[in-house]
Amino acid sequence: MKLPNAERAIIAQDKLVEYLLNVEHERGGSKAHVLYEFGYRRENWERLADDIRKFHLNAQIQVVRESMYGTRYEISAMLVTPSGRSLKVRTIWQVDKGTDYPRRITLFPD
Predict the structure, then answer these.
(1) What are the beta bridge partners of residue 96?
(2) pLDDT digits over 33-59, tens only?
(3) Less crowded by CB within 10 Å, the N or C end of the chain?
């Protein structure tokens, strides 16, 4: 199974720039250090968004969970990073109740 309506998936710029690629963020800093090691930077956040779309939105879903807010999907797949090396990450997506498109909740090294 693949992510429903993946072509309409939301990957919010602020969540990438202010959280995932912010080495000073209290919770996201450790993720940012890993992503920096593989060549991702705040100033080229679009590359991370593009790579997530390219490598995760066509991958198979490993876990589906219902929550009080909607349906969550977990995808574990490789990214081919700016450094040229591969990095396996897990992305969590949610289709909120009342909508039919996914939004990215988080990403972490897998």
Answers:
(1) 70
(2) 999 999 999 999 999 999 999 999 999
(3) N
